Amino acid sequence: MIEWTGVALGGMLGACMRFFITNRINGRWNKNFPLATFLINMTGAFLLGFVYAEARPNNILDYWLRSGAGIGFIGAFTTFSTWMYESATLKDRKAILTLLIYMLASVVIGLLAAWLGMTIG
Amino acid sequence: MNETNGYSKWYRHFLQYGAVAVGGVLGALLRETIELITPASYGFPVATLLINWSGSFVLAWFYTITIWRFKVPQWVRAGIGTGVIGAYTTFSTFAVETNSLLVKGQIFIAGIYVVLSVIGGFFLALLATRLAGEKEESLQDGESSRERVVDSFGLKDGESIGD
User: Fold this and answer.
1) Is the Cβ pair A23, B160 closer than 8 Å?
2) Do A15 and B160 touch (CB under 8 A)?
3) Quick check: ipTM above 0.90?
4) Shortest alpha-carbon distance between residue A45 and chain B (Å)
5) How far apart are CA A31 and CA B144, in angstroms?
6) For residue B87, what is the enclosing H or E element?
7) Do B147 and B159 touch, CB atoms closer than 8 A?
8) In angstroms, rounded to a whole number, what is the distance separating the alpha carbons of residues B153 and B27?
9) Three-state secondary structure of B2-48
10) In whole angstroms, what is the distance from residue B52 CA to residue B90 CA?
C-alpha cells in the first residue's frame, strides 16, 4: 500500500509541477523549439538517475523515496508523449532542423544527464 | 482581464490544476500497474516501451481531435493531456533504463530500445494526428501548437494557457 500511495501523491505533484513550468516558460518563449518539455525531461532524467542510485530498497525510507519520488514524482514530471507530439508538430510545420535537434539533443543529453545522476548518486 | 469565457482567472486556475492533479494520479498509477503486470523479457524494458508508444499515440490523437473536431474546455484538455497521458508516459525511466543496459554492456539492446522508442513513438504520434484529421496543409508556416491551442479556446493573444 505504501508504494501505491507514494506513486499517487508523487504523480499528482509531478504532473502539476510540469504544468506549472510549461505554462511559465511558454508565456515567455516564442521560438519553435519546445524548450519547456526539453528542460523538464533533462532535469527529470538527472534526478531519476540520482534517486535510483541513491535509494536501494533496503529500508522503509528508501522504499518511499523510490516509489514516491522516483516512480511517482519524477516519472510523472517527465513526459515521453509530449516530446513525440511536439516532434510530430515540428515535422508538420516543416521545421526539420529544429525537429532533428530536438530529437537528438533529448536522447544524447537525456542519457548523459541520467548517467551523471547515477554517477553522483 | 479577470474575466475570460465567463470565468475568473482564479477559477480557471483551480479547474485546470485540479484536473491535472487528478489526471496525474491516474496516469502514474496506470503506468506503475503496467510496469508490474508486464512480464520481464530478457532484460528488455518492454513495459516502458509499450507505455510510451501507446501514450504518444493517444496524446497526439487527443490533442489533434480536440483542436479540429471536438472543442472541449481547457481544463479537460489539461486534465487528460497534461495530467493523465503526460504522467502515464515517462522520459526519465526511458533514460535510466537505457543507461542501465549500457552499464551492463548490453549496448546492442540499448540501441534497439532507443531506436524503437523514439522512431516508433514519433511515427505513432504522426499517424495519430492524421487519424484525428490533421492535414499538413492545415498548418500555417510559423504557427506554433500553443498558438493553435490559444486560438481554439478563444483566449486572448499573449495570455498563456492556464496562467
Assistant:
1) yes
2) no
3) yes
4) 4
5) 8
6) helix B86-88
7) no
8) 25
9) CEECCEEHHHHHHHHHHHHHHHHHHHHHHHHHHHHHCCCECCECHHH
10) 7
CB contact under 8 A, A11 and B87: yes
With vertex at residue A16, the alpha carbon angle to CA B77 and CA B154, rounded to the nearest 5 degrees, is: 35
Place of cell 554492456: B105
- A41·B160 Cβ contact <8 A: no
pLDDT for B87-123, tens place per residue? 999 999 999 999 999 999 999 999 999 999 999 999 9
- What is the chain B residue with the closest CA to A49? B96
Helix H or strand E encompassing B65 = helix B46-68
Q: CA-to-CA distance for B123 and B103, rounded, in angstroms? A: 29
User: Which positions ≥6 away from B107 have C-beta within 8 Å?
Assistant: B101
- DSSP per position, A5-65: HHHHHHHHHHHHHHHHHHHHHHTT--SSS-HHHHHHHHHHHHHHHHHHHH--TTSHHHHHI
Query: Chain B closest CA to A92's CA: distance in Å?
Result: 5
CB-based contact A106 B139, cutoff 8 Å: no
The model's pLDDT over B118-140, given as tens digits with 9 standing for 90+, comes to: 999 999 999 999 999 876 555 55
Q: What is the DSSP string of A66-100?
A: IIIIIIIIIHHHS-SHHHHHHHHHHHHTT-HHHHH
CA–CA min distance A112, chain B (Å): 9
Tell me the angle at which helices B46-68 and B107-131 cross, rounded to the nearest 10 degrees.
Answer: 20
Question: What is the interface size between A and B, counted as CB pairs within 8 Å?
Answer: 202
Domain parsing of chain B, residue ranges: 8-152
Residue with cell 498548418: B139
For the cut 80, the answer to whether the pLDDT of residue B27 exceeds it is: yes
